[in-house]
Structures are given as structure tokens and as C-alpha cells.
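Anyone else keep sequences and C-alpha cells together like this?

Example one:
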Amino acid sequence: MKPKVHELQINKLSNLSKSLFLLNDTITFLNHGSFGACPKPIFEAYQQFQLELETEPVDFIIKKAPQYLKEAKNRLASFIGCDASDFFFTPNPTTAVNTIMRSLKLQAGDEILTTNHEYGAMDRTWHFYCKQTGAKYVRQEISLPVVSKEQMIAEFWKGYTANTKVVFLNQMSSATALLFPVKEICDKAQQLGLITIVDGAHIPGHIDLNIAELNPDYYTGTLHKWMLAPKGSSFLYVKKEFQDDLDPLVVSWGYESLFPSDSRFLDYHEMQGTKDISAYLCTPTVIDFLEQHNWKEKALLCKQLVLDNYQRFCDLVNTQPICPINTEFLGQMASIPIRTQKHIELKELLYTKYKIQIPVMPLNDMVFLRYSINVYNSQADLNSLYNALEDIITTTDLLQV
């Protein structure tokens, strides 16, 4: 039986919003969470910056870009709740975490406490660092299904030892799409004298964010996911007392600068050679777009659509939700636990035969089918997925129920 709650509103929203995006109309796109989707007006602003750059590269890079960048940072600072002098743009959170990691100077035996729900690229980054230094990456188990925030917090701190020096935590996990209680964990970590690093890749434009209130030592998030910016726009926030300890990932003109600004921190990390920063410069256009289109209100409808369908999909594949079905744990994504030995083949079949773009992701000893909902989606998109899964269960061995 199809869910009826909010369906009329959602379908109306979808019909109005699809025309704003560049997405292929022949594909049911249920994977906004991986790389986002950029609306036409924002993409046009992006191209305009690129055209301006190529029209007069020297004048643009030396004179115009720094002013555009200043405006972009001021607008983003207000949006994410921090000071513009305390962050710099990066192409992605992986670059941000690599920058942090190489400056930590941990010793052999020191421990980085994390969870077993982290993004694969981050796990690989920390494994590389630990091989170089002898530090230990502790992937503390957060069991499923999640029952409460209190359970998550208690399980996380079971991994703490006298050797723990760093807490690394995603605010929303990629494979399981779960929101983690980072505020509570950051607060306790501060009391214990630990360095706190938060991977908020899925947060800006998705979940309300105020970095000052969250109070991490380091925070990275993307603009190209839920804020709808062009690809390759992210940021790294660093608390003031750690800024002088952060070495540049790339040593260039900002190091021992001939024309230093009043922030060595920004000189080191913003002056790293020739590159196209057009995606960063679009930030004012991005924020204007979100505000003009009342994106927060639209996001609430998207979240409701996620919640309305979660149990329905779990029932279809004969599994249970991995958390309580509410906005304390879920945003505009949900991950359905499925039974399959062929997750790559399943994803490919959904795309090639049914024209559905959706990730199928293994994590630990489970596999998840994660659907993401943005304003261009409707109940009809989820019905298409439901019908495809029904057919796959009936006609193939890719899903066990």
C-alpha cells in the first residue's frame, strides 16, 4: 500500500523543482547523497566565474578572486556558524582530513577513537597515517539497530583508553545514513582533553549547523552535496588554538609569504598554487538560491517522505529498520538493510534495467540500499524503486528475503 501522508505536497514540490536541475530525466535519481546535484542557476554562476577567469587570468587570479573569495567566506561563515578567519575552502573532506592527519604528530601507541560507521576514504586515510606513525585507529562498534542516542554514546566511549588522544566522528554516516550525537561526544571529549575532529560531509544544507555551538577542534563539511554547490566545494574549520599547528598539505607561496596577511593560517592554506576556485566563489549564489526557494521548508517535506517509506521498504525485503524512524536519527536519506551476496551486480541491474541511480553499500558484515530524497524527487520515484525490488526478488537471486 502506498503511503499517502504528504504525498500531494511532495509530488507538487517535485514537479515544480525538477526543472531547476540538470539531471537526466530518463534516470530515477535517488542518490543525491553521494555527490549532490547542482541547480541550473548555480551552475551558470559557476561557468560565469570560469569564463571571467579565462578572459583575463592574471587580473582575475591576482585581484578579483581574493575579493570574491572574501565575500564567499563571509557568507558561508554566517551560514555554518563560525568566523570567516577560522576556515578555508578545500575540494573535499578527504583533503581536509589529510591536512589534519599529517599535522597531529601522534606517537606510537596513541589512539584515534572512531566508530565502525565511518566513510571508507576516511578509514583509509587513518590506516595510512597509523602505518606511518605506529598510532592505532580504534573502530568502536556502534551496534544495529540503534535504540537511542544514549546507547550510541555509551557504546562509543567503551573504546576509550588512557592512550586515546583523538576522537574522529562522522556527524552523519554514509553507508547507514545515521545521525550521530556529535555534540554530546564533543563535549565529553573536551572534558577529557582529547582532540575532536568531525566529518560533517552530509550536514551543511541538510541538518542545521552551528559550529560555534558544536565546538569541535576541527570540522569539515561539503557544499557540493546538500547545499547544491558545484562539485569540489568543501571547507575545513580549525579552532584558533590549533591553527598554528596545522601544516599546509601543499607548500607554496603562502609559506613564509613575501606579502603576508594578518593570518598565517590562511596564507598557508589558501595560497597553494594555481587552481580554479570557481566552485568556492559560487557560495553567495548558493546561499541566495537556498534562501530564495525556502529550502528549509522543502527539506522538511523531503525528510517526511524518507520517514513515510522506510518501514515499507524494510517490510518488502524482510528486514528491520536500523534506527527509530524519526528525525533524531534520519535526515533526507535512509539505508535499508538487505541480504545479498552480489551488491555490485544489484546496483548495476537497478541502473541498467530499471534506470534507478541508487547506491548499494557494504559496511562491516551488512549491506545497505540507501535512498536519498531531494526536492526533485517524488513518491513516484520511490514507487519505481519498490516495484523494481519486487521484480528483482521474484526473478533473480540477487536479493534474499
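And example two:
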Amino acid sequence: MATKNDLAPLRSAHPTPLVFGAGAAIGVLGGMIGLGGAEFRLPLLIGLFGFAALSAVILNKAMSLVVVLVALPARLAAVPASEVAAHWPVAVNLLAGSLLGAWAGASWAVRMRSSTLYKVLAALMVLMAAALLVTHTTALGALALPLWAQVPCGVVAGFGIGVVAAIMGVAGGELLIPTIVLLFAVDIKTAGSLSLLVSLPTMLVAFARYSRDGSFAVLGANLRFTLTMAAGSIAGAVLGGLLLDVFPDLVLIPVLAVILLVSAVKLARHT
């Protein structure tokens, strides 16, 4: 169970340029691979800014929500709305599981002991590193499942992704995009837009669950910090998008995976 100590420090006193710069650095990393970068932001909130695990998760969730809301119109403009709408059953299928998973994940996070949550976050960092490597270094092909198997698999996968996204405070695109490609044979560009449509309501459900817990007070106490880092993340994501083809995936992806694994080790050892 989370305790009052899990809220420390309740208010960040770090200078605004540092907060914005850290957010921008995370945004660049995410932008270069077409993601929001929230999985890189979480260990930074804990390691650099000193937030306890649950507080960091809640702040990360709030920033991820802001980034997704900003990214959604641009992403939908890049892919025709008719093309995205044609795949609405995919979004509904995943949401049937992810909404429940988000509520369950947030409920489990607020009830975990802080020491346990650090270890769970470390394990999920390893999962994200693996997903990053698989998605960006291998050619994903559809599993071609029959409809009777595809639908329940979508619900189960959605539930798992909702749990992970809620506990880490991320949008979940790292897991949603390969899931959509593998289960539903959607091209990766359209899958990116569909993942945002699934992520947004999933994040709102997790956010609603966190708002019912006393630990949610950390967001109100650090609202300026949150908005500043979110603004930096958005600015960095734009810059990262411009650098998209500067570094080859065979170099960039392993480096980012190593960053996640090192972060996982540090989180596992955190007390």
C-alpha cells in the first residue's frame, strides 16, 4: 500500500530550464523513433528529480496525456480519416480490454508497496526494451488468426497493454503498434494512428482511477513542473521528428534499448 512517504518530494524545486530541457531531451529520443518517450521520462522523474515511484507514475501519466492530445490532430492529419475509420473494429476490440486493464493497473499501482512498485517498473522497462527492439529491427507480419481467435486475443492483449500503460504512466504505443500489426494485419503507419485512438481513452480511465487516490495530490502540487516538462517533451518530439532519418535504426534502437535496461537496473535497486 502506498504511504505518505510515496508522495515525497511533494513539490519539485528544480529550475524551470532544467525541467524543460529534460523534457525536451526525452521528446527528442521519442521523436526520433516516432514515439512519445514516456518510458524514458519515468526513470528521469525518479532518478534526477527525486520523485517516489507512484508520484513519478502519476506525473508521467499526466505528461503523456498532454503529449498524446497534442500529437493526435497531427497524426490524424498525416493519415486519411477514412483510412483510420475503416479499422474502427480494431480500436473497439482493443479498447474492450485496455479500458479494464487501465483501471486494474492503476488500482494495483496505488495498492503496491513502494519497494514492490520499483521492481515492477524495472521489469516493465525490460519489456519496453524488448518491444522496442522487436518493433524496429524485425519485419512484423500478421499472424492471420481466424476471427474467433482474433477477437479474444485482441481483448486479452488490450487488457495487458492497459495494465502496463497505467502502471508506467505511458501511452502504450510501444506495445499497441506491434499488436495491431500482428493481430489485425494493419500497416504500421495506420497502426500508429489507431494506437493513439486507443491510448487516449485508456489513459483517461487510468487517470480517473489515480484521481481517486490521495497520491494524486502530487499532480496539483507540481502542476507547473508537469506542464513545463510536457512542453519540453512536445518541443523535443518535433525536433526528434526532424532528426528521424539522421541516425539509422540499427544504431539508434540498440542504444535506446540499453538506456531502458540501465534504467531498469537502477529502478530495481532503488529504495
